[in-house]
Amino acid sequence: MCHLGLVVCLLTVVNGFYLPGVLPKDYAEGDQVELKVNHLTSMRTQIPVEFYSLPFCVPHTGVVDSKENLGEILSGNVIQNSAYRIRMYEQIECAVLCKKKYSPAEKKQFMYAIDEEYLVNWIVDNLPAAFRTMTDDNRDVAMYQHGFPVGGKVLTQKKNTKLHYLNNHVDITIQHHVPDDSLEIVDGFKPARIVGLLVEPFSVQHKAPGVWNTENENANQVSSCPPLAEVGRVVPDEHKFGMILDQKKGPVEVIWTYSVQWRSSPVRWASRWDVYLNTSSVDAIHWFSITTSLLLVLVLSGSVAMILLRTLRQDLNRYNRVSTDDEKAELREESGWKLVHGDVLRGPSNPLFFSVTVGSGVQVFWMVFFSILFAALGFMNPANRGSIMLGMLMLYLFTSIAAGYSCAITYKSLNGLYWQRCTVTCMVLYPTLLLSVLFILNLVIWAEGSSSAIPFGSMALVMTLWFVISAPLTFLGAFFGYKKDVSKKPVQTHDIPRAIPDQEWYNSSLVVILSGGVLPFAASFVELFYIMSSIWLDQYYYVFGFLLLVFFILVVISAEISILMCYFQLTCEDYRWWWRSMLVPGSSSIYLMLYAVFYYHSRLHIDFFVSTVLYFGYVFIFCVMFFLLTGTVGFYATHWFVYKIFGSIKVD
Q: Which of 117, 505, 575, 584 could disulfide-link to 343, CB 3.0 to 4.6 Å?
């Protein structure tokens, strides 16, 4: 049913098999386990901010940024050290992190973060912190999301208003697994690997007996901490909503505490990401929907191919058996695709722009294909932060040689004269369009003070890579393309264009193009939901094996629908198939945009205009690349089809 997808999924998900990117680390008893903080994220604003933009406890050594690769920077990760002190196997119960007195302005910062549902993101041993949530029907089903809330709101019974409470205490449960080949050390402990990081936040109104030690705050003792127990336990209300921020108008004093417990786990290190990958209770529906969609598309593809081959075979037999003058005269009075043999290879309008679009589409095709393939094989996975973004960027740069080659050979086959202009346009047109949109969106993010804004140095590095890698490879590909001989044309083009008969409304370009984009979109819309959720609902996308299958199905459907529509168009004696072969499957990007609008209104709860601009700006980039991919597949399939059928008939 899904041979390749099932194999890849078993390798990457079930067995947790990852290729180079992240190596396991063994911790002995007493080894320091560093807890790092990442940015604060919100699904309401879609604008992440730095962790220390809120007045949390700062490490005594100062805040230090971790070294990040270009992919992490482009993804908006801001990873820094924290004040938490954790050692392997060391149980900690209600340790004091710090005590801070917050002014009314600082209280408003926390209250704003609570209103906008910001989540705190921690990392231990490259593993993000998971927070256990309940299902909508409150069933006892383990559901985990990465990140935990800054705080929340509780409804008061007296005034029927909502008050903000701050999560100032966290229970940290670190799960560890001892490898089978591990050797014993002191006191019977063995080197172990961290396989889970579960965090449960609480809001506690701490009581600090005695005089507070300001020089060494970690030495202080507090009471009223929730006792260490299993994750998901029932706790009293004073531990859930104890630290209320807006009970007092003036400053408020907050004591930050934490507890750490260690739990042995049977989960192997290679499978430790399963808790994040299986975040939804509707996983079974996900697999069933994808399988049903694939089967439906495959059956539809087979039906279209059978109808097309049978009808086309009858046409070829009818055209090639004409021998007498009477039969030829009778054939001339009929309609059919053979009658346009003298114009079918007449070039499209604006051949330079057409060739550039084809070249850019080939570049996007190979970039997407190799990105999905490498992700399915484990080279690019969520465990290696920034690897997907960095991989896609480098693949896009190196596939520029395919763009230059395809653009050049297409333009040469259309008898283009300005090859230098064509090559330069291929190098700058679509990359400049996409980079301009990204630059504008980055300015918007920067103006909002978001941590996801790409620094100027990183933007300059991307531009440098484009000039150093992409530009030379585009010219190199164009050089080989112009040197290559084009394939021989099966028919000669007449000097005078043939008149095109009036077409019925259902054969008009608009109707054909819009109707042709339905099937390519239908082949991928199920997967689009999960891709959109991974981007905008802060979830991990991991079923790259199935995504690879969906990609192949999308390619097949785009090719078949373009060929089918071209056949009907030529049968109606309309030989202008060049642009239409690209626009028919490429119109699926219109439905993608409409689906994005539906997803925006049905799934997201964005209240900010800036967030809306960011959402539709990124969706626009995605739609342009989707158009280039499907449109280029449609053109090459139709080009092969036209050459094949007109090379199979006898033309006097």
A: 575
Q: How many Å is the Cα radius of gyration of the chain?
A: 31
Give the residue with greater pLDDT, 368 vs 206.
Answer: 368
CA 120 vs. chain centroid, Å, equals 21
Q: Band the pLDDT of 433: cuts 50, 70, 90.
A: very high
Closest Cα to residue 312, out of 561, 568, 488, 507?
568
Q: What gap in Å lies between CA 71 and CA 74, rounded to an integer?
A: 5
Q: Residue 262's closest CA among 315, 318, 196?
A: 196
d(CA 517, CA 472): 35
Amino acid identity at 216? N
Domain boundaries, the chain: 27-272, 283-316+348-486+505-646
pLDDT-derived band at 283, boundaries 50, 70, 90: low
Q: What is the pLDDT of residue 3?
A: 36
| Res 44: pLDDT | 85
Tokens representing 20? 């180079």
Alpha-carbon distance values, 29 to 12, 52, 84 (Å): 31, 31, 18
Which token pair is 616? 């539709």
The predicted model scores a pTM of 0.83
Name which of 400, 402, 405, 419 is nearest 351 in CA terms.
419
What count of residues does the chain have? Answer: 652
Where in 116-190 does DSSP place strands (E)? 119-120, 122-124, 127-128, 130-133, 143-146, 148-149, 151-155, 162-166, 169-177
pLDDT grade for 449, boundaries at 50, 70 and 90: confident
- Which residues, 6+ apart, have CB-to-CB distance to 599 below 8 Å? 529, 532, 536
For 50, 99, 108, the CA distances from 55, given in Å and listed in that order, are 11, 11, 11
Tell me if residue 141 falls in helix, strand or coil.
Answer: coil
